[in-house]
# Entry
Amino acid sequence: MWHTYGSDAQQTIFVEYIMITNLTESYAFTWNELATTQDEDNLNRNISNIYIVYDLNNPMEYFWLTSENSSKIIMPSCAQDLTTFYSPFHLFVFVPVSQVSNWILFGELNKQLPITQQRFDLVQFSFNTTDRLDLHVIGVSGEQVSITIGHTKHVFEQVNIYTVQCLFQSISEVSTMIVTCEIDHGCSCHI
# Structure
């Protein structure tokens, strides 16, 4: 089992990544195990009380993991083939659930690490007059980015999952695009 984390460039959201390989039997992973990964190198990193967790191999099948109950994620066995020495693996992505919004960033599901500071400059949730998510997305001219976002009416309920396609069309080589998601208008890309 291997662990790392990623964030947007402004460190407003921290996503946890757990990779498993060579498990000869399934493993029950709990929130407490994630809480013990706190490190002193990044004091801005917080372990969330609630996560949406998905296996990158099947992101539409997600789980809720919380600190307030005995929830756990069953990670499947993935033993090494002793003939070919092939080692299958699963990468679980732990996305924190915002306390001020019902939007959930799943990220770029076609990438090994779907949420990184190289792609997301800022992730901003708000619930002033409307439930809203603003993403500052970094890309290069001509690049098409596919971002998956979820929305739930309440924690522990079904998450409606949306994918927005954004094409970077700018004069400069590298630019930032703003993706805005609102329940009444859906998600849209703005340069």
Observations:
- Helices lie at 31-35.
